[in-house]
Amino acid sequence: VYRALSVLSENSDLIQAFLYRKSLDVIDRNEGVLFYDCTNFFFEIEEEDDFRRYGKSKEHRPSPIVQMGLFMDGNGYPLAFSLFPGNESEQPSLKKLESKIIKDFRHSKMVVCTDAGLASASNRRFNSIGNRAFITTQSIKKLKSDIREWCLSPVGWKLLGSSSDKLYDISKVDESVHEGSIFYKESPYTDAQGTRQSLIVTYSIRYRRYCRV
To answer: Are residues 170 and 111 in the same domain?
Structure first.
């Protein structure tokens, strides 16, 4: 196995593309939605080298690390991965790996889902081109003051799953009736770089109580 690792590394992109094509014969892939996240692996060595570098360890260890980015399809099956030095930022890895998927897998229509840490302005802009779109989390604290006020205002909420256009004041709803309900607001939003998006805010009584514990 150890003797084969260098060969596998040199041909990693080719092997991933081949396995993807063959997997279509045996599993049902949901390629319209892709999930991306990163992790890292530490090494118990004394000094860093060109690849194993000191960086921000997920386990808060002071050891050199290597980072890994992984794309999964909408059904949870791995699609493609990449490895990069531990001292590099996670954010550029998304665009690099996604560009490989578009080229090698001949797949360009997708909705990419990430957490806030991978939702840089550059990545959002990249996934708003052509047939690509994105879904990500957004910190309310980092929004402009007028948008923050809209997000935190108790009025103007809709009830998820309701066919009615009724608007709710969440400070006045009967919590015993709406214990398991989810309320939401939606508004067009353009960030500082000009990327047009839909901003969706949700509110749950049950989740509020959970956060207060």
So the answer is: no
Query: Which helix H or strand E contains 61, and what residues bound it?
Result: none
Tokens of 39: 């992790």
End-to-end Cα, the chain, rounded Å: 49
Determine the structural domain holding residue 30 and report its residue range: 1-137
Task: Clarify whether residues 132 and 144 are in a common domain.
Answer: no
Inter-axis angle of helices 12-23 and 91-104, nearest 10:
60
Q: Are residues 51 and 92 in the same domain?
A: yes
Domain count, the chain: 2
CA angle 173, 179, 181 (to 5 degrees): 80
Local confidence band at 66 (pLDDT 50, 70, 90 cut-offs): very high
- In terms of Cβ atoms closer than 10 Å to its own Cβ (0-12, 13-18, 19+), residue 20 is buried
Distance of CA 153 to the CA centre of its chain: 27
User: Across-strand partners of 15?
Assistant: none
- Other C-beta atoms closer than 10 Å to the C-beta of 36 total 23
Query: pLDDT of 97-146, one tens digit each?
Result: 999 888 888 777 899 999 998 989 899 999 999 889 999 998 888 888 99
Q: Both 98 and 195 in a single domain?
A: no
Q: Are residues 114 and 151 in the same domain?
A: no
Query: Do residues 128 and 190 share a domain?
Result: no
Q: Side by side, which strands form the sheet with 158-159?
A: 158-159, 182-190, 196-204
